[in-house]
Amino acid sequence: MTHSPVRRQLVRIVACMAFTAGLVVVAAGDARAAQTELDSARSHAADLAREFQSSELETERLEAQIASVQAQVEATKVEFDAAAATMSEAAVDRYVQAGQDLDLFAREEVDRQAQVAALSRLLSQRRSDDADRFRALREDLEVRQAQLDGLLADQRKASVELDANRQSLYEQITALEELERQRVETARLQQEELARQQAAASASALAAAAVTTTAPAASGGGGRTSDDAEAEETSERQSPTVITGAGGTCPVAGGVAFSDTWGDSRSAGRSHAGVDMFANYGVPLVAVESGYAEENSGGAGGIGVYLNGASGQSYYYAHLEDLGTLGNVSEGTVIGYVGDTGNASGTPHLHFETHPGGWGTAVNPYGYVASRC
User: Which of 77-91, 239-253, 294-308, 359-373: highest mean pLDDT?
Assistant: First the structure.
């Protein structure tokens, strides 16, 4: 059976369209698998962020407790030394009166323990209230010193755990960045392939419409154009990779991990008024909405940016490594880069705050970023 050129061309068009549809199905499946892997990695990163922040809190708690106990030890030492001096003076008076040699207390080479032992032997000759106070202070000093030694040991252990948790967290963040890069690259390649197939189908349809007895050759269906190369080069240069979720744009354009630490205690009696979003040094930070960005640096926050959003809500970005574009910005504009300035030395992250209705009281931003990142 002989088929006309038009019929043969139509068959090719249908086949091309079926192939393109198959590519869409495969691409959708690949995208779902990649997203599932990415979601799992993000969940694990969030768990590691919680562990790290928990060990941070424990370290800060120990530091505060050690400072308190150290102050108590020093105060008790002052009282103990005063009581020892009083006992020594009383013992000198008594021995002088008795005509006995007190050379023990005059020799510089005799250490404190020897003096304490000598003074203890004299307790029976001293009034009971002075003796009781001396013994009580000595016991108190021993107890507080033992408590301090224990806390210092706990601090060393907590420091090791903190370093290990920090390393695990940033290793996972780096892995997350690679997964995100792979996802974006795979999506780009799939889009390119889909566009080429659609272009080929369109060209075939146009050719079929103008077909004569000789079927025209397909033009440009399989080759790369200069526009393709330019688009790929531009894509490779693009930074940041803006992340969006159901709520909108994520402030961190890269691998990031965070957990809800709103209200957690901080040094100097402060409570946490934001969310710490852990990322590697130099990861771009972007405007979560259009508005006006201005620098606000100094103090515990280090290099910072205020973003006054067009919606009336304001945002604070802290601990930046460097500033980006300031002034009037659109959503997704790079306004800074992740760093560890201020009191964040050694732990690069973004401290992010949200202030509804302008620069009033901050509210918990965890839900805000969780819906976007």
Answer: 294-308
Beta partners for 44? none
Could you tell me how far CA 285 lies from the centroid of its own chain? Answer: 13
Contact call for residues 253 and 180 (beta carbons, < 8 A): no
Q: What are phi and psi of 346, to 5 degrees?
A: 90, -10
Residue with tokens 């979601």: 39
**How far lies 353's CA from each of 288, 361, 367, in Å?**
12, 10, 12
Per-residue pLDDT at 214 exceeds 60:
no
- Which structure tokens are listed for 363? 């509210």
Residues 54, 164: contact at Cβ < 8 Å? no
Whether residue 335 contacts residue 317, with contact meaning beta carbons closer than 8 Å, is answered with: yes
Provide long-range contacts, Cβ within 8 A and 24+ apart, for 85-89: 86/130, 87/119, 87/122, 87/123, 87/126, 87/130, 87/131, 87/134, 88/115, 88/119
Decide if pLDDT at 212 tops 50.
no
**Dihedral sign (CA 295, 296, 301, 303):** positive
Q: Which residues pair with 171 in a beta bridge?
A: none
- Structure confidence at residue 302 as a pLDDT band (50, 70, 90): very high
Tens-place pLDDT, residues 240-265: 778 888 888 999 998 899 999 898 87
What distance lies between CA 340 and its chain's CA centroid? 10
The gap from C-alpha 243 to its chain's centroid, in whole angstroms, comes to 17
Contacts with 215 (C-beta within 8 Å, 6 or more apart), sequence order: 5, 8, 9, 207
Rounded Cα distance, 165 and 106, in Å: 55
Scan for tokens 């197939």, then name that residue.
Answer: 197
Stronger pLDDT, 334 or 123, i.e. the higher one = 334
85 phi and psi angles, rounded to 5 deg = -65, -40
Spatial CB neighbours of 266, under 8 Å, sequence gap ≥ 6: 60, 272
The token duo for 279 is 């990322």
Beta pairing partners, 353: 316
Burial of 214 (0-12, 13-18, 19+ CB in 10 A): exposed
Q: How far is CA 224 from CA 191, 227, 368, in A?
A: 14, 8, 42
